[in-house]
Amino acid sequence: MASVRFESAQGRWVIAAAALGSGVAFLDGSVVNTALPSIQRDFGASLAGQQWVVTGYLLTLGSLLVVGGSLGDLFGRRRVFVLGLVGFAVTSLLCGLAPNLGVLIAARFAQGVSAAALVPGSLAMLSAVFHPDDRSRAIGAWSGLSTVSTAIGPFLGGWLIDTVSWRWVFLINPFLIVGAVWMAQRYVPETRGEPTGDSGKRIDVPGAVALSVGLAGVVYALIEGPPSRWSAASLVAGLVGVVALTGFVVIEGRSSAPMVPLSLFRSKRFAGANAATFTIWGALGAVFFLLTIHLQNDLGYSALEAGAATLPVTSLMMLFAARSGALAQRIGPRLQMIIGPLVVASGFAMMTRISPGSSFLATVLPAVLLFGLGLVITVAPLTATVLAAVNDQHVGVGSAINNAVARVASLLAIAVLPALAGIASAGSGSVGDGFARAMWICAAATVVGSAICALTITNSNP
Fold first, then answer.
1. Contact 14, 22 (CB under 8 A)
2. Cβ-count burial of 149 within 10 angstroms (0-12 exposed, 13-18 middle, 19+ buried)?
3. What does the H/E/C string look like for the chain?
4. Which of 57, 194, 202, 395 has the fewest CB atoms within 10 Å of its CB?
5. For a pLDDT cut of 90, what percent of the chain falls above it?
6. What is the pLDDT of residues 197-209, one digit of tens each?
7. Which residue, 207, 206, 239, 209, is CA-closest to 222?
């Protein structure tokens, strides 16, 4: 089945379907950041409420991504991908029509469940249908297009917010999803992993429950703990979360059909690439969350202007992501995975200079350009390295694990970083000096990611 070539018409349609589908999910992960000040004004949301609008989505997405990947491997990657798209369209409507903050947060939780079905399937479809010689190029193109959707989200959201309403950042999704479903059904061949033994058609329900409860408990404690001065409820939630996450590791080690096969982490490259993903994508999630709030609340940007500030990232990814993937295929991923995070860290360090009165051309633009260049260097090689470290049987799970690591890192960073950086009222007041402190923390995290790559990534797959 892995015979589709990158240059073929079918290959282009497969990439388009995968990128549009995952791009809608990534879009909602970033576009909401731009809408937070407007949501805060409409619903009177506190900082914790705004955090839950973002982390509620990331929580269910991160918790269930591996389940989604497993379902695709077992029952058909295209089938699960399309079902996820349909569910995402329905839950997007619920978000756009929400009458209050509580309903919006609940709908965001449901939206994350649907995204967990479609996101791993998008990448697994590419790995399963493209010829091995073209996979890195296909993944590079997918990375570029998908990351573009993440970066363009604040701009598109800003325009919708300023011209219509924040609700349209959700209501636009069904229109995009119709196109993705049509392309997938028409051009993407169905693939699945071959079941092995008696466990071939089993889903790891205990593992999924333990991971979901664990993440929910920890995230609740991190978000609600600081403003409540660590109330009994937040401490109990945190303890339950830690116990559940510990139980998750035990369950996976003993299960005959684990959601996360721990054997995958015996690969030094797979373990290292995921550890680097955790540090780098945690920093990215925090930066996207705080930057648009800082630009609007402290520098007086409109929602559209704040969103447009990230357009250079979009342009760089569109122009060079596929070429970065092709370069990594020729020379190996190690050099790019070491240098890329350092360039990202330099961009974050430059963002510490963004403060009231800062010039866009002299301060914001150089930082965003450097950040975008680092992403170009890093994203495609990192993704390709993760997939190259697993066999075809586990490509869906491998993709899902890496996506889950990225989303969990983002939700944990968004939950903990405001308190760690001394930001008490983002979205309803000035972020202040806390923004600079947060950027230094994010820069340090990406430097750690570079160091992990230097220690674990080679140009061969042991």
1. no
2. buried
3. CCCECCCCHHHHHHHHHHHHHHHHHHHHHHHHHHHHHHHHHHHCCCHHHHHHHHHHHHHHHHHHHHHHHHHHHHHCHHHHHHHHHHHHHHHHHHHHCCCCHHHHHHHHHHHHHHHHHHHHHHHHHHHHHECHHHHHHHHHHHHHHHHHHHHHHHHHHHHHHHHCCCCHHHHCHHHHHHHHHHHHHHHCCCCCCCCCHHHCCCCCHHHHHHHHHHHHHHHHHHHHCCCCCCCHHHHHHHHHHHHHHHHHHHHHHHCCCCCCCHHHHHCHHHHHHHHHHHHHHHHHHHHHHHHHHHHHHCCCCCHHHHHHCCHHHHHHHHHHHHHHHHHHHHHCCHHHHHHHHHHHHHHHHHHCCCCCCCCHHHHHHHHHHHHHHHHHHHHHHHHHHHHHCCCHHHHHHHHHHHHHHHHHHHHHHHHHHHHHCCCCCECCECCCCHHHHHHHHHHHHHHHHHHHHHHHCCCCCC
4. 194
5. 25
6. 444 456 778 887 8
7. 239
Q: How confident is the model at residue 428 (pLDDT cuts 50, 70, 90)?
A: very low
| pTM for this predicted structure | 0.74
Residue with tokens 């995402």: 88
Contact 143, 327 (CB under 8 A): no
